[in-house]
Amino acid sequence: MPVVYNGDLSSVQKTLSFLKQHPFCSTVMIGRGLLSNPALSRELQGGAPLTIHELRCFHDRLYETYEKLFSPVALLGRMREYAKYMACSFEDAKRLMKEICKAGSLKTYREAVDRLFDSCPLRTDPGFQTDGSAAGHASA
């Protein structure tokens, strides 16, 4: 029977390390990892790493899709929640993540996200951090 693993495989480094330690595992699930790094499956297949432009496009498309489906209040809540995953892919994003979490309007949310993309570089191995040390775990 094929074995599928799911849990805390949220970056290229973590996933490759797991697969090396468990060669019998034929398939992995990487849900939160894809939220923070939409290029993760491509990278695992040897493709190009995530770019900041690509992450911005993913964020903006998600925002635009949610905007069609939800009220402004629900949109803000969903995007603040998504930002916790996205921010894990940035260096030094803790202060800006706090601003995003505290955003009381879509305008202040978008302004804080703009500052995040304009001022924080991507991490070398972007992905969701489960150890609590990442920007995405900043409390509001």
Please, could you describe this protein's structure?
The chain is mainly alpha-helical and 140 residues long. It has two domains: 41 residues, no CATH class; 68 residues. It contains seven helices and two strands; from the N terminus they run βαβαααααα. A two-stranded parallel sheet has the order 1-2. The N and C termini lie far apart (45 Å).
Strand content: under 5%
Mean pLDDT: 86
Poorly predicted runs are: 132-140
Main beta sheet: 2 strands, parallel
Q: Indicate how many domains the architecture comprises.
A: 2
Report the structural category.
mainly alpha
How many beta-strand runs?
2
Order of helices and strands: EHEHHHHHH
Give the structure's gist in a few sentences:
The chain is mainly alpha-helical and 140 residues long. Helix content is 55%, strand content 4%. It folds into two domains: 4-44, no CATH class; 52-119.
Key terms:
single chain, about 140 residues, mainly alpha, 2 domains, 2 strands, elongated, disordered C terminus
Write the layout of secondary structure elements.
Elements: E1 4-6, H1 12-21, E2 27-29, H2 31-36, H3 40-44, H4 52-69, H5 72-86, H6 94-102, H7 106-119
Parallel strand pairs: 1-2
Helix pairs in contact: 4-5, 6-7
